[in-house]
Design a protein that fits this description.
Blueprint lengths: L1 H12 L8 E5 L2 E9 L20 E7 L8 H11 L10 E4 L6 E6 L7 E6 L11 E6 L5 E9 L5 E7 L5 E3 L11 E5 L18 E5 L14 H6 L8 H8 L3 E6 L36 H9 L5 E6 L5 H7 L2 E4 L19 E6 L2 H12 L18 E5 L7 H17 L2 E4 L2 H8 L9 H5 L2 H23 L9 H13 L9 H10 L14 H12 L3 H21 L20 E8 L25 H5 L3 E12 L6 E11 L5 H13 L28
């Protein structure tokens, strides 16, 4: 018995015990204590912290990394209160200030209210010069500082996993939970940490980012919106280069965000089986968030504490969520950034882009993500010469509130550019200038099958087929043959004996019946929409893929020559002298109509995405398409029985490669008062999100 006890103790001593952080409640605000030390702020033994509040050995403190006189501290902390949602006066129990020689042993008040008495100590020690200003939790045993993360409930159900970004920019799950109903908890670091880090090399320092759950992030699993995929595959060993570029620029990823399954378009709630669709915060809180970047749109529409979200757009997966949540969002010119480490829907059409409320962060993020392929015009000294031609496509002719808002924007845009908006009939333009041999056919006749064919014929061999094969199981190098085991047993019992003659049929039977498989040939569950689309694609002839690519190229060449040619004389026949693009094209994004998530589907099975629409213009041409929020209109909600507001948006297109022109236009229109920056909340002007699952007030 003693020997067993000793063995158990030895085994326990060898156990691998790792801290994943801790959760604390400070003045009714929930915090997460990072498990990673930032260094020791002081080596002074005269600094006594016994009088400070502690939990799990941690006490809240503040670091001021810039040398300041103590008289300047109250105004500094007053600014911090308005600049940061993590810091609060409760972190002023102890203040470490750079440049002080000795501690101030007498407590004084620096919060401007005389409510909090602080001990002030010099910021010194081996790592003192590398510790940024902001709130920290001090480990009273080791003397080390740990960053503070404020915890928020994901009441919109936008995230699929809460993540903690490690110092080496790999990831682990953030282990924390605040009181909330069936929702994750997201932790965000203090914005103060990034103030000194913002630089030309780190333009996104401290920018909080959500990432669509189809991008690889080193150290954690992704789901692609499928539970079986998440459970089966191991964590990624590297981060998608597109996301790594953001991390290298200082961005902080706080979580994975829900996509519709395998990035196929799905309707909430009818099509979402494996995961519950996120909640659109606008209006009554029960409208469809659109897809497939559903979590991205819902989060940016809901949470002021999140700055930007990375989505993907193949057929509208960024533009749709941006439109119904009233956000800025972009489908970029195709091919601006590589998509290694990203689940494909159709490499011929896939793009990576952003959803955001801030057109200024938008430009900075674009510069980082697209690199040399993106030309920012924000700081163009000579100004921007905008196109004098603006096309409107299928703008409303009625006098409803949304129609008035859309048409007023067209007029205001024309006046701002010194141009007049002109209605463009794409059907007539195609019939007059379309490619010889097909201009007598409609756009729907030529392109009606193109999108559905590309996404099914390209995704099935790249995603479905290897997933099915891996999940069902593969032949491995360890075989189990009963006949051979019997022969081995005879050798042990009787010595050398002749190898028994075993028929090939017997060996084949033993091989197949004893194959070690992952799931013994089973298939994983797949939601109805991708399953139906894949099935439709399987029924199309092999030649359909080549036909779809050819038709897509046919349209691309026509559109980029006849409708939105670049302004560079060497590349087009126009006489435009405008910056980059010879013209702009706008069409309706959303018109404030409700799309409720509590509706039963009208069809028994999903149908493939057939036909041609304005949303396919950028998809087939490769030209950029950006969503601008215009405002919102009211209608009586069937949920609340009162008038609720829903967004109205417009899509703005320019010549391929002119992405920077559109973002600069957004900023200029905000500056001119034609556009307003949307806020997070129930309306574009902010406000409480109705039907939210949890309410958390700042202290």
């Amino acid at each position: 018995m003693k020997a067993f006890t000793l063995f158990a103790l030895v085994g326990a001593a060898a156990a691998d015990l790792t801290s994943t952080g801790a959760s604390l409640l400070l003045n009714d605000v929930y915090y997460f204590v990072s498990p990673f030390s930032q260094g020791n702020p002081s080596n002074s033994s005269s600094f006594n912290i016994k009088s400070l509040p502690r939990a799990f050995g941690f006490t809240p403190v503040t670091v001021v990394a810039e040398p300041l006189p103590k008289s300047s501290l109250p105004s500094l902390f007053a600014n911090w209160t308005s600049q940061d949602d993590v810091w609060q006066p409760a972190f002023l129990g102890a203040i470490f200030v750079a440049g002080l020689d000795t501690p101030c042993l007498t407590k004084e008040s620096y919060d401007g209210t005389n409510k909090t008495q602080s001990i002030v100590a010099p910021l010194i020690g081996t790592a003192g010069s590398n510790i940024p200003s902001g709130p920290y939790f001090l480990d009273t045993i080791t003397g080390a500082l740990h960053q503070a993360y404020r915890l928020y409930p994901d009441y919109a159900g936008a995230f699929s996993e809460s993540l903690l970004q490690k110092p080496d920019t790999t990831f682990q799950t953030l282990s924390a939970q605040v009181p909330a109903s069936a929702s994750l908890t997201i932790g965000v670091p203090s914005r103060l940490y990034s103030f000194s880090a913002r630089s030309p090399e780190k333009p996104l320092a401290g920018v909080r980012v959500g990432v669509k759950d189809i991008y690889d992030l080193a150290g954690v699993k992704k789901s692609n919106g499928n539970r079986a995929w998440y459970a089966f595959y191991p964590p990624a060993t590297s981060t998608a280069p597109s996301i790594q570029a953001l991390l290298d620029a200082g961005a902080v990823v706080v979580g994975y965000q829900k996509p519709s399954q395998f990035a196929n378009g799905e309707t909430a709630t009818a099509d979402w089986v494996d995961y519950h669709s996120p909640f659109n915060p606008r209006g009554d809180g029960y409208n469809d968030p659109s897809s497939s970047s559903s979590g991205a749109g819902a989060s940016i529409g809901s949470y002021e504490w999140l700055d930007i979200a990375v989505g993907s757009d193949t057929g509208g997966s960024i533009r749709g969520p941006s439109a119904v949540q009233g956000l800025f969002g972009n489908r970029p010119s195709h091919g601006l950034v590589g998509l290694d480490g990203v689940m494909p829907l159709s490499p011929t059409l896939d793009t990576a882009g952003f959803l955001t409320r801030d057109p200024y962060i938008w430009d900075e993020a674009n510069k980082v993500l697209y690199g040399a392929n993106y030309t920012s015009l924000v700081e163009t000294a000579a100004g921007v010469t905008y196109p004098k031609t603006v096309y409107t496509v299928d703008f409303p002719t009625d006098d409803g509130a949304a129609a008035q808002m859309l048409n007023k924007f067209a007029e205001d845009l024309g006046a701002f550019l010194g141009a007049k908006a002109t209605a463009l009939n794409l059907t007539s333009a195609w019939a007059e200038t379309g490619p010889v041999g097909v201009r007598n056919q409609t756009l729907d006749d030529v392109l009606g099958l193109t999108y559905a064919t590309l996404i099914t014929k390209e995704q099935t061999p790249l995603v479905r087929d290897p997933f099915y094969a891996d999940y069902a199981g593969k032949l491995i190098s360890v075989f189990f043959f009963p006949s051979y085991l019997c022969f081995s047993r005879l050798r042990k019992e009787k010595g050398p004996v002749a190898l028994p003659l075993v028929s090939w049929e017997t060996l084949t039977h033993e091989l197949t019946s004893n194959l070690i498989a992952a799931h013994n040939g089973r298939l994983p569950f797949v939601n109805p929409v991708p399953l139906a689309r894949w099935g439709w694609g399987d029924k199309q002839p092999a030649s359909a893929l080549d036909d779809a690519r050819a038709n897509k190229t046919l349209f691309m060449n026509w559109f980029n020559t006849e409708i939105l040619p670049p302004s560079t004389p060497a590349l087009n026949t126009s006489t435009s002298t405008s910056t980059c693009s010879s013209s702009l094209l706008i069409y309706v994004g959303s018109s404030g109509r409700a799309s409720l998530r509590n509706r039963y589907p009208t069809t028994t099975t999903p149908t493939p995405p057939l036909g041609f629409s304005n949303g396919r213009l950028s998809v087939f041409s490769g030209a950029p398409d950006h969503v601008f929020p215009l405002g919102e209109v009211g209608s009586v909600s069937s949920v609340t029985n009162v008038t609720e507001m829903l967004p109205v948006t417009v899509d703005v297109m320019a010549a391929r490669g002119c992405d920077g022109l559109i973002v600069r236009l957004a900023q200029d229109l905000v500056g001119a008062g034609i556009l307003k920056v949307p806020l997070a909340g129930g309306t574009l002007a902010g406000g409480e999100v109705l039907m939210r699952r949890d309410v958390e007030e700042w202290f």
